[in-house]
Design brief:
- The protein has 319 residues and is an all-alpha fold.
- Helix content is 69%, strand content 0%.
- The chain has 13 helices and no strands.
- α9 runs antiparallel to α10 and α12 runs antiparallel to α13.
- The longest helix has 22 residues.
């Protein structure tokens, strides 16, 4: 090799020929690369380009790590998907392509997405894998384990009772457990997640009583009180309009039930009793229908128009 270098140095080529050779080599190299490479995929909107690396995925997750998920809906990515669900899919795809690359970061990020999606069993497994490793994230993961275990136990509590009374007793027990956990989590990043699950359990209780009000003592009154308490206690919730709609639906159900039991054309029909529940339903539907920007506005408008037509029909028959 050294002899070749000495020989080349001893007999240098003319500068003009050397420049022409380099230009020809560059042209050939460019032609070969251009022939091998596929043309770039045109992207109509840069926001929808695929994520290039793990940093891009985790940066979105970290940006919303301290969001109040109780008051505000889940953030959306540029394509309009739930950010946590979309990020989890991207992480799973990244994990398939690079199964041994940055496994601790991938698992920890998956755990954050899963806890925000209320998949506490999956989050617990992800954080536990990091906590049992030598990762710099192991201490953070270990700090999350007690909360995830509690979330997983409460969320996994299943009520399997055929008797309505026993079911209600079990529901109250589950609600007390969530309320106690909310107190334990107060001031931590998990307070809002706990309040979300408490709210969800209270909503299930109200809906169960409403669905079975005919076989529950004072069922209609109890259901109305539960819906009212939901709207008062969770006035700051992102689901407040849904609670109003569920309350209005039950008032509309009571209105229709009364018209079925008492023929509007008979003397037994009392318009004041009919109007009491009908006015409540109209008021609640109107409350949501007047909220500009609310996702439930269109739904409330449709229900309000249909119910108004029904009430007008019954009032006409009773005259």
């Amino acid at each position: 090799m050294s002899a070749l270098r000495v020989s080349a140095a001893a007999h240098p080529r003319p500068t003009r020929r050397r420049g022409a050779f380099r230009a020809l080599a560059a042209a050939l190299a460019f032609g070969l690369c251009a022939g091998c490479a596929s043309p770039p995929r045109p992207v109509a909107d840069g926001r929808y380009e695929p994520y290039e690396n793990l940093l891009e995925i985790t940066s979105d997750i970290q940006r919303h790590a301290n969001d109040n998920t109780y008051r505000f809906p889940a953030p959306r990515d540029p394509s309009g998907q739930n950010l946590y669900k979309a990020s989890l899919i991207r992480l799973l795809n990244y994990e398939k392509i690079y199964p041994r690359r940055m496994t601790d970061v991938v698992s920890y990020s998956k755990g954050i997405c899963m806890e925000r999606l209320h998949d506490y069993d999956g989050a617990l497994k992800a954080f536990r894998a990091v906590a049992e490793s030598d990762s710099p994230l192991k201490e953070k993961a270990r700090a999350k384990l007690p909360y995830m275990e509690k979330f997983n136990d409460l969320a996994g509590y299943r009520i399997e009772k055929n008797n309505v009374g026993d079911y209600l007793t079990e529901m109250e027990f589950k609600l007390d457990a969530w309320r106690n956990f909310v107190k334990e989590a107060r001031g931590t990043p998990y307070e809002w997640l706990a309040v979300e699950d408490e709210e969800k359990t209270e909503q299930h209780l109200a809906e169960f009583v409403a669905q079975n009000y005919l076989i529950i003592k004072n069922g209609a009154e109890n259901a109305l009180n539960l819906f009212r308490q939901l709207t008062i206690k969770h006035a700051q919730s992102k689901n407040i309009n849904l609670h109003y709609l569920n309350w209005a639906d039950f008032c509309a159900l009571l209105t229709k039930r009364y018209a079925q039991d008492k023929d509007p054309r008979s003397l037994d029909f009392d318009m004041a009793t009919f109007n009491k529940s009908a006015d409540a339903a109209i008021r609640l539907y109107s409350l949501v229908a007047q909220k500009d920007g609310a996702e439930e506005k269109v739904q409330a408008l449709g229900k309000l128009q249909a119910f108004n037509a029904y009430v007008a029909k019954i009032q006409g028959e009773s005259e």
